[in-house]
Design goal:
By secondary structure, this protein is mainly β. The chain contains no helices and 5 strands. The chain has a domain of 51 residues. It is 0% helix and 42% strand. A 5-stranded antiparallel sheet has the order 1-2-3-4-5, with no helix packed on it. Strand 3 and strand 4 form a beta hairpin.
Length: 78
């Protein structure tokens, strides 16, 4: 439900947040109502993390990200 009377809902398919002080990157991806969160960065000494959520928003799976996190090449610094 939109918060504003004339507001509308939108769907965000991907969002990337880079936190320079901590060196962490949070990447949210949503496909077919299923959310995937990747937490990556040099501060993750044991390995980058991946958390999957079901369509109700509950955690469905979590663990170490298999493979290497790659920063999208289309992402530009602001």
């Amino acid at each position: 439900m939109p918060l504003k009377p004339n507001g509308a809902l939108c769907r965000v398919r991907e969002q990337i947040i880079e936190d320079a002080p901590s060196g962490l990157v949070l990447q949210f991806e949503c496909e077919d109502g299923r959310l995937r969160l990747v937490i990556a960065g040099k501060a993750m000494a044991i390995g980058n993390r991946e958390i999957l959520f079901d369509q109700e928003g509950r955690e469905a799976a979590a663990g170490t990200l298999v493979g290497e996190f790659r920063r999208p090449n289309w992402l530009k610094k602001v």
